[in-house]
Amino acid sequence: MNTTAFLAGLDCAVRQLLATVQTELEPLGLAQLNQQPAPNAWSVLECLEHLNRYSRYYNPQMARAVATPAGRPTAEVRHSWLGRKFIAMMAPGNTQKAKTLQRMNPGGIRLDGGAVLSEFYTHQHRLLELLAQAGAADLNRKAVPVEFLKLLKMRVGEAFEFVIVHQQRHVQQALRAKEAAQAPAATGPLLVAA
Fold first, then answer.
1. Residue pLDDT, tens place only, 41-74
2. β strands within 95-173, DSSP E
3. Which of 5, 19, 62, 130 keeps 20 to 30 A from 120, CA to CA?
4. CA gap 20, 173 in Å, rounded
5. d(CA 86, CA 159)
6. Which CATH topology does 3-182 take?
7. Beta partners for 154?
């Protein structure tokens, strides 16, 4: 795919994520933000904190990758087999559950809504800056170590796409948690007057 179109699509996706979180999730009260839809299911804030933990790792890795001079900018973005596999695993349309590493699992802790949201916004704005810089980088260079197995490296373009589809997946999960938090509590059986 053409680099300009690829980066523009990713930029648009990040901006859409930001708008969704600001309009759909930020207005919720702290109780709703922390309410788990089911036992062992993440709340809205747990979904966003999970993304913050990944951003703490991937944003600096991608910043190094786009700052390192490596020849000419990429004209066409290519994907490796590994990159396609990771992206497909995290794609929002993939309904298969994926296990997360313990250090990336925020489940079961009470989170501060303001702090989690503020950090999420900071990471997204940094990601937008990195996408703007990426047009001058070699996006096909294997330069971003995979978080859970650093011996494996994704291409720079793949890493951007992986991070963004991962975020889309968990923002959708957060929206489902919001719906569950706003659902009226189940009441007992309806009694019909005779």
1. 999 999 999 999 999 999 999 999 999 766 677 7
2. 142-146, 149-155
3. 5
4. 12
5. 9
6. Four Helix Bundle (Hemerythrin (Met), subunit A) (1.20.120)
7. 144
